[in-house]
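User: Please fill in residues for this 314-position structure.
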């Protein structure tokens, strides 16, 4: 049996939302404990240059997350390298069981487990992630000024990414397995009217082709779903836009969710459907999915947890 540890505030997740919650909860003298999870630092650790974090013209994603971790620690947040495998929210104090065997109990919980971009699972896709293959146009589109790029997908995410990328790219090829898009009508209309976008119907991504030294994308091979014919399209960037999946495994059957599993919070709040449980960042944000908005929600969650605990103690 592992040990049992109690904390006033348990923060689950270590992206911008989790670390910011750690900073604010520490400053409120709540002595928070943060469990990093399976991917310390979250999605930003898989990106390279970040150019939209205020105060940094350019910063490497992993470096930014190390700085956030150091900041939270400096404020007094205890950071634990562990993975929460089960979360019982039926009674307070809440109980979290972990991969290490440690049981954590807490008077309040801040969920900051984030979301994960959906990927196709191709070996070549994995090879070039961060080096020409991306799942975030607003993060990485800027690096493809004047280049030809490819977007994979056919829903709102894909159409929005393709339209956004025309701000930078000379040409955007939208590869879709069907011959009609599943996006909103107004977005489809904009896409069809944009001279920089060329839809390629009935095709799927077969392989990303590129160089090894330096690592970089040169083209994609796509396959016709009916004939099986494979063609090669020149491209410097490949954006996989088949949606995001919130990392809601711990709470999907307990908390209210919507929009494909994102945790519902009250308007202008991080409060969930269970008092004392707060959700921040991409776990709850199906709209913006930016580091800076996640950090803002982490701040909100810590302040609301402080207020909640003060009311319980009164």
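Assistant: Residues filled in for all 314 positions:
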């Amino acid at each position: 049996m592992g040990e049992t540890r109690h904390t006033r505030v348990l923060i689950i997740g270590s992206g911008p939302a989790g670390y910011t919650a750690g900073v604010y909860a520490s400053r409120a003298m709540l002595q928070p404990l943060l469990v990093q999870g399976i991917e310390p630092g979250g999605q930003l650790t898989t990106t390279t240059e970040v150019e939209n974090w205020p105060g940094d013209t350019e910063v490497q994603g992993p470096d930014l997350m190390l700085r956030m971790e150091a900041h939270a620690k400096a404020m007094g947040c205890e950071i634990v390298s562990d993975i929460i495998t089960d979360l019982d929210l039926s009674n307070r104090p809440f109980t979290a069981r972990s991969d290490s065997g440690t049981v954590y109990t807490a008077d309040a919980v801040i969920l900051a487990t984030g979301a994960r971009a959906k990927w196709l699972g191709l070996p070549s896709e994995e090879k070039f992630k961060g080096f020409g293959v991306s799942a975030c146009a607003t993060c990485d589109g800027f690096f493809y000024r004047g280049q030809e790029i490819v977007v994979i997908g056919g829903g709102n995410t894909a159409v929005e990414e393709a339209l956004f990328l025309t701000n930078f790219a000379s040409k955007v090829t939208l590869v879709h397995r069907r011959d009609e898009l599943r996006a909103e009508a107004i977005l489809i209309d904009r896409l069809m009217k944009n001279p920089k976008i060329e839809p390629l119907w009935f095709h799927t991504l077969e392989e990303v082709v590129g160089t090894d030294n330096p690592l970089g994308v040169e083209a994609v091979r796509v396959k016709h779903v009916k004939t099986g014919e494979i063609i090669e399209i020149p491209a410097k960037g490949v954006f996989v836009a088949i949606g995001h999946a919130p990392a809601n495994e711990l709470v999907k059957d307990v908390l209210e969710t919507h929009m494909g599993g994102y945790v519902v919070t009250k308007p202008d709040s991080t409060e969930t459907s269970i008092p004392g449980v707060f959700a921040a960042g991409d776990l709850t944000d199906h709209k913006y999915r930016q580091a800076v908005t996640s950090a803002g929600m982490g701040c909100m969650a810590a302040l609301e947890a402080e207020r909640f605990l003060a009311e319980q103690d009164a």
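For context: The chain has a mean pLDDT of 94.
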